[in-house]
Amino acid sequence: MDGNYIKLNSMLWMRIKYRLGLIYKTILFKLGLGKSLLKNRYGERILVFHGIDSYGETKLNSRFISKLFFEEFIKYITTHYNIISLDDYYNKKFKKNTLNIAITFDDGYLNNYKYAVPILEKHNVPACFYITTIHKKAPYLWADFLDIISFNTQKKDVFFEQKSYKKNNKNEFVNNGMSLKNIAKTLPYDTIKLMYEIFNDDWNALPPKQFEDYWKLMNKKQIKEISKNPLFTIGAHGETHVSLTDIPLEEAKREILTSKQQLELICEQPITEFAFPFGYYNHETAKYCEDIGFKKLLLVDYNTKNDAKNETWKNRFVMNPYISLEQQLACLLKGSYF
Ligand SMILES: [Zn+2]
């Protein structure tokens, strides 16, 4: 059997497991038996959020949750579990008999500053913000540009890098089963940015302000303000949000170093935390991060079980905007959506 066939089958199986798990949990909660799913479990998790919006739009991307959901979630976890700073997490200042949680945000959206920060301050919850320092090159992240534009454009097919991409019913541009977004993930930024030209007229025709929550990034003043707040820390997330494992190592090093230096200039303090874009890392990029002074490296999943032994590298639990608060809590306690 070929590797792709096995990979496809295991992905399908994970999807079925995820769906069945959701149905099972929904039935338990409906029958009033869901408490067993929310029993305290012990251990520790680092959560990763991306965007927070005003009402929970899930058509544009799969990374945003509503401010209402966010506050309900924060209220619940601060009441029932032990919320700690990432520093305390790394120093293993955990409470026994409960779940210890640290909170992180990736990408550096203005909506973090607008919606999440006031809620975190109100409930006295520490958090770390990992910022993409693309400001000089573009006002948005390329993935958000593509998400918003794919949703809004009248174009049915586009030509990019000698390939034709047709829009499907999920608003993705696809060639041979591969989406433009997934292809872009493997490219250097100088190639990715050519997409801006294809959709430039569509971007300029967007209704003013309507999508700002989904693409606007924090400015320097807002980043600095967060860095001065004792509840929060600022970390780096690369300069252009490219996959650091798909571009040449020297270019990856430049991305990492530039984002560190730019944030140190803005915040006037050492930046010692780095979150890998898309969670993609390898030993070369991680070693470089450690060599230039990063003390905390945030991933999504470990590449291998052995990687979990490295005390600098931590995996994180990604929030899911498609499920209820109860379901989200049950998955968080389990540490898995499967
Ligand atoms: Zn990111």
Short characterization:
The chain has 13 helices and 15 strands.
Description of the structure:
The protein has helices at 3-30, 67-80, 86-90, 110-122, 142-152, 180-184, 189-192, 194-198, 200-204, 220-228, 249-267, 283-291, 325-334, and strands at residues 43-49, 51-53, 64-66, 82-83, 99-107, 127-131, 157-160, 163-167, 173-175, 178-179, 232-236, 273-275, 296-298, 313-314, 317-318. The protein is α/β, with parallel strands linked by helices. It has three domains: 1-39, no CATH class; 43-137 and 216-334, Alpha-Beta Barrel (TIM Barrel), CATH 3.20.20; 142-196, no CATH class. Helix 4 (110-122) links the parallel strand 5 (99-107) and strand 6 (127-131). Helix 2 (67-80) runs parallel beside helix 4 and helix 11 packs parallel to helix 12. It is globular, with a radius of gyration of 20 Å. The site of zinc ion has 5 residues, from strand 5.
